[in-house]
Amino acid sequence: MRLLSIAIVSLLVVFAIGCADEPETLPRYSQVYDTNHDPQADFKFAMQRAQESERRILMFVGGDWCIWCRMLDKFLQETPAVNDFLQQHFVLLKVYYGRDNRNSQFLANLPPFRGTPHFYVFSAEGAVLHSQPTAVLEQGNGYDELKLMTFLEKWATAEPTPASDAQGKQGVAVQGT
Fold this sequence. Notes:
Mean pLDDT: 84
Number of strands: 6
CATH superfamily: Glutaredoxin
CATH topology: Glutaredoxin
Strand order of the largest sheet: 2-1-3-4
Radius of gyration: 19 Å
Number of helices: 7
Strand content: 15-25%
Largest sheet: 4 strands, mixed
Distance between the termini: 56 Å
Shape: globular
Order of helices and strands: HHHEHHEHEEEEH
CATH architecture: 3-Layer(aba) Sandwich
Low-confidence stretches: 4-23, 163-168
């Protein structure tokens, strides 16, 4: 009986350690720019996830064709402090924009942008808080860790951008909510 008790306790400890170290599995819309994804549906899921976890939404507009988008992905993979902070405070949503699919109907509800990647910060309820070109976050031939962290820290808890800066756009009109 004592041996059985030790075995059960050992299994519970191993299970608890395994669960604690297991990273959150990100949905596909957080991992890739997909030409076939419905950004409206993805945004709705991101809003739900943001509300449940009390985080904001950080949307990357870009594509796998975009060298700076690929460099940003690589930078985040290689810079755990930035990536961990992003994951803790934001729900990441990637929306494809390119020759194959401009997602014009979805993006028409947002302030215009001139290049990719481009960031939009949303409240968990879907209101546009900020529109950010990423060129100012670059340093040389890559991204600057301090600039990116400063941006993320500011928008993890900051007040919304004044309406004049957001060009009067209120957010994404999510159908079915």
